[in-house]
Amino acid sequence: MMGNFEGRGFSFPLQTRTYIMGILNITPDSFFDGGKWNDPENAARHALDMEKAGADIIDIGAQSTRPGHKPLSDKEELLVLQTCLDDVLETVRVPVSVDTFYPLVADYALSRGVAIVNDVSGVFNPEMAQVVRQFDAGWIVMHSGKSDADGVQVYPRGVCADVHDFFRDMKKACVSAGILPERLCFDIGIGFGKSNEDNLALLRGIAGLKEPDCALMTALSCKRVVANATGATGEDLLFGTIAADTLAIAGGSDFIRVHHVKEAKLAARMTDALVR
User: Fold this and answer.
1) Per-residue pLDDT, 46
2) Under DSSP, is residue 142 helix (H, G, I), strand (E, B) or coil?
3) Cα(246)–Cα(35) distance, integer angstroms
4) What's the rounded Cα separation, in Å, for the pair 233 and 228?
5) Model confidence over 94-146: pLDDT tens digits?
6) What is the pTM of this model?
7) Are 33 and 259 in contact (CB under 8 A)?
8) Collapsing DSSP states into helix, strand and coil, what is residue 158?
9) H-type helices in 98-216, by residue range?
10) Which residues contact 268 (CB under 8 A, 6 or more apart)?
11) At CB < 8 A and 24+ separation, what contacts does 72-75 make?
12) pLDDT number for residue 145
C-alpha cells in the first residue's frame, strides 16, 4: 500500500520509512512538558532542536488535551498560538502542523504558513473541511472514542472495529467534501475515550486499521498507557514509548508523534531496517 501524504509544500511517500512528528506544546498545562516552551524564544529554539534531531514535522499545540484539562475557547487558543507561531515558522524548514479542532485557529495558522491541521475532535466538521480544502492542507483526523453517561468506554464490536469504521466513514465524508485521500492521515487516538485495554488492543491490531491511500499515525508518547504498563514516570516513560512505537511501526504506522525526537528517530531507523 503505497501513495503519499501530501499537501501545500510537503509530500511524504508512504511505507518507505517512518516519519517523526515532534511535539511542541506552548501551553502551561500539558501533561508531560507543560510550561517549558510557552514563550517565543524557547518555542523556536526547541522547534529547531527537534528539526536538527530528525523531526519531519513540528506539531505546535496551544491547548492541552490532557485528561481533566480546562478547555479554551477558539479565541483564547488563538491568542496563545499567536505568541509563538511566527517565530517557529521563521526558524524551521520542515512542515509545521497546528494541533487544533477549531476552524478559526486552523484558518489563521494555515494563512501564516502552517501546512497541516492535526485535529483531535473525532468528528467531521464541514467548516474545518472547508478550511483544509481552501489551503490545500494536510488533515490529521483522530478517533476520539465513545463513552456512556458514566464515562465508561462503549465499543460493542470492539475498539479496533470502531476505529476501522470511523476511518472509513471519515474518509468517505472528506472525499465527498472535496478533500483527496492523500491529504488525510488517520490517528488511532491512543488515550482518547479508551480504556487501558482498548489502547493495548489498538496497538496489537494496528495492522488492520490502515485505510487505503491514507497515512496512519500513532501518538502515544509518554501517555498513561505507557505509564500503566511500565510503572515509569517522567523521562523514564521514553523507554516504554519506544517499545510501543516499534510495534506500531511494524504494524504499518507511517508517522509517530513524540516528545523525544532523537531517540525516536534512531529507534525508527532500526525498526524500518527490519520491517520496511
Assistant:
1) 94
2) strand
3) 29
4) 10
5) 999 999 999 999 999 999 999 999 999 999 999 999 999 999 999 999 999 87
6) 0.94
7) yes
8) coil
9) 103-112, 126-135, 159-176, 196-204
10) 17, 18, 20, 245, 249, 256
11) 74/102, 74/103, 74/104, 74/105, 75/104
12) 83
Apex 203 CA angle, 200 and 204, nearest 5: 85
Q: Check if the beta carbon of residue 217 is closer than 8 Å to that of residue 206.
A: no
- d(Cα 250, Cα 274) in Å, to the nearest integer? 8
Give the residue among 258, 198, 222 at the shortest CA–CA distance from 66: 222
Q: Flag residues of the chain having pLDDT under 50.
A: none
CB 97 within 8 A of CB 138: yes
Report which residue type is found at 20.
Answer: I
Residue whose grid cell is 510501543: 244
Predicted pLDDT at 153: 74
DSSP 237-271: HHHHHHHHHHHHHHTT-SEEEES-HHHHHHHHHHH
Q: How many CA atoms lie within 13 A of 213 on its CB side?
A: 10
In Å, how far are 145, 160, 181, 191 from 151, measured between CA atoms? 11, 19, 33, 13
- What's the grid cell of residue 217? 499515525
DSSP 213: T
The distance from CA 206 to its chain's CA centroid, rounded to whole angstroms, is: 16
Q: Could you tell me the three cell numbers for 34? A: 507543560
Look at residue 275 in the predicted model and tell me its pLDDT. Answer: 96
